[in-house]
Specification:
The protein has helices spanning 41-60, 62-69, 77-100, 102-121, 126-154, 160-188, 193-196, 198-212, 228-247, 257-279, 288-291, 293-322, 328-336, 338-348, 350-356, 358-374, 386-411, 416-454, 465-473, 480-514. The protein is mainly alpha-helical. The chain folds into 3 domains: 35-213, Growth Hormone, Chain: A, CATH 1.20.1250.20; 227-281, no CATH class; 286-529, Growth Hormone, Chain: A (Up-down Bundle), CATH 1.20.1250.20. The longest helix has 39 residues, at 416-454.
């Protein structure tokens, strides 16, 4: 390829760049890259598998856990507590990885995750299990952000889709295999084994990382001080905000005293965080994350991605069970086909962004996603199972074109010393988007079903949402007309949710077209000749 350059190549400041190496202290430069034969691919894959499998395995064992420990009214915090811990620690670990290196942060995160797993297996009641799940989440935040950063450190741009496809395949496999593994362990052993199984997998990942990941020596001199006050402020602000979003409308009404107190407290802490970070020499959330157009645009677009992903991940399985009458395994498969096409198009996306650039490839993917999400409104009532499954398959393909070019592109615009912070900010925005989406779309679905119950033309329907939820688990207890109307109401609610997800995709498209630069400013020393 040595001579001429095509439109969209690295000479235009966008695609075709080489990723930076591990270990250079400079914010813009990079040192020698770790040799391909020494790349700790297995360690990265196993580390990502720990966090990818966690949620899906635990979800299937909830009945056994509740039956043993009790605490049915608060079991949702098994997931909410973990999500909160992962989300609010991402910016902290990103800064630590830029300050001390990726290897100690990743190994420390895996060790903390394994300690949390061991404690979860020893939990004596639901409160203890929830607390130990938070410990797991504190380690999971380090794993999730640092693995993504290392994927950029270790691989040049032309090879990065390959490792990203492998990491995406881990999530796809987890979505399919996790429920089966969790069900088997809960049914034939004890639910505590869903946490104990992490120990040998994690120990192998730690050993491989310690043996195979070698970061070049950093230049002598004082290291930047860690902004611990800023880290505490970010943690507290994010924790309050996400608690308000996760529990609002579930544990208490949106306009109740707890919701207002949490939102008000998070607003005050946000102001404190800004004040602390502006005074810090090395802030956890530096202002340049939002002052640089490329990073700000990617952060906002990935937040929209997190928001729209709630529709297929949360509401399609509910739709498949309640509206189509499928069993839980079949309902999960309807959604999980999305994870089959996602890594394929992600791996192939390099052939697109090398020609038209990162921004245009991502814009193409999210525009297709908006159309595909809107097509949910065209499904008949009742639909055949293959129809929503086809929509999910196409959606995964579109989102593979959307996510990977943004992640690869934004990582290629910063040097080693800023890449952990940049990657963490992108993942943080996506996680916050998911929390906002869960709250927003949950309210949309509930409002739709409540309105249809209030104006129902058939007798025998439940009077409220709680009754409707119980009736959906026992549809035979309702008159035939009432059961059909309730199933149809769920289908309409899910249509409204997907319409909202399509609006989020359109918002992401507008962000890319209006905020992101047409050509991502890939660092000159990273461009491919």
């Amino acid at each position: 390829m040595g001579g001429g350059k095509r439109p969209g190549d690295a000479s235009a400041g966008d695609a075709g760049a080489r990723g930076p190496a591990v270990g250079t202290a400079s914010g813009a430069g990079d040192g020698p890259r770790q040799q391909p034969g020494r790349r700790p691919v297995a360690a990265l894959v196993l580390a990502m598998a720990l966090v990818a499998m966690d949620g899906t395995i635990v979800a299937t064992a909830v009945p056994q856990i509740v039956g043993d420990l009790g605490g049915f009214s608060v079991f949702s915090w098994l997931f909410s507590g973990y999500l909160l811990a992962v989300t609010v620690t991402l910016p902290v670990y990103g800064k630590l990885a830029d300050t001390y290196g990726r290897k100690p942060v990743l190994i420390g995160g895996m060790a903390l995750f394994l300690v949390g797993s061991l404690l979860c297996a020893a939990a004596w009641n639901m409160a203890a299990l929830i607390a130990f799940r938070v410990v797991q989440g504190l380690g999971g935040g380090a794993i999730q952000g640092t693995v993504q950063t290392l994927a950029a450190d270790l691989y040049p741009l032309r090879e990065r889709p390959r490792i990203q496809a492998r990491l995406s395949t881990v999530w796809a496999t987890s979505a399919v295999a996790g429920p089966a593994v969790g069900g088997l362990l809960a049914a034939y052993t004890d639910w505590r084994w869903i946490f104990l199984i992490n120990l040998p997998v994690g120990a192998l990942a730690v050993w491989l990382c310690a043996r195979r990941l070698h970061e070049p020596a950093r230049p002598a001199g004082p290291r930047p001080r860690v902004d611990w006050a800023g880290a505490l402020a970010v943690f507290a602000c994010g924790g309050l905000l996400l608690t308000a979003l996760v529990q609002g409308g579930v544990a208490w009404p949106w306009l109740s005293a707890p919701s207002l107190a949490l939102f008000g407290g998070s607003a005050v802490l946000a102001a404190v965080t800004v004040y602390v970070e502006r005074r810090a020499a090395e802030p956890i959330l530096p202002g340049w994350v939002w002052r640089r157009r490329t990073i700000a645009a990617v952060n906002l677009a990935m937040g929209a991605l997190g928001l729209l992903m709630v529709a297929p991940m949360v509401f399609v399985p509910t739709y498949a069970q309640s509206a189509l009458g499928l069993d839980p395994i079949a309902a999960g498969l309807v959604m999980s086909v999305m994870t089959l096409s996602w890594p394929i198009t992600a791996a192939l996306s390099q052939h697109v962004y090398r020609r038209i650039g990162f921004r245009n490839t991502a814009a193409l993917g999210v525009a297709l996603a908006a159309l595909i999400l809107s097509s949910f409104l065209l499904l008949p009532h009742p639909a055949e199972p293959w129809q929503p499954a086809l929509i999910m398959l196409l959606l995964g393909g579109a989102l593979g074109l959307f996510q990977l070019p943004l992640m690869v592109g934004v990582q290629s615009t910063v040097g080693w010393a800023e890449r952990g912070t940049t990657t963490a900010s992108v993942l943080f925005c996506r996680q916050v988007g998911q929390s906002v989406g869960a709250a927003l779309f949950g309210a949309v679905a509930n409002a739709t079903i409540a309105a249809r119950l209030a104006g129902a033309p058939v007798p025998g329907l439940p009077a409220d949402l709680d009754g409707a939820a119980q009736a959906l688990t026992r549809p035979d207890a309702l008159p035939a007309d009432a059961a059909a109307y309730l199933r149809d109401s769920v289908a309409v609610a899910v249509e409204h949710v997907h319409l909202g997800a399509a609006a989020a995709a359109v918002a992401a498209l507008l962000i890319l077209l209006l905020v992101a630069p047409r050509r991502f400013p890939v660092l000159p020393e990273l461009r491919q000749e």
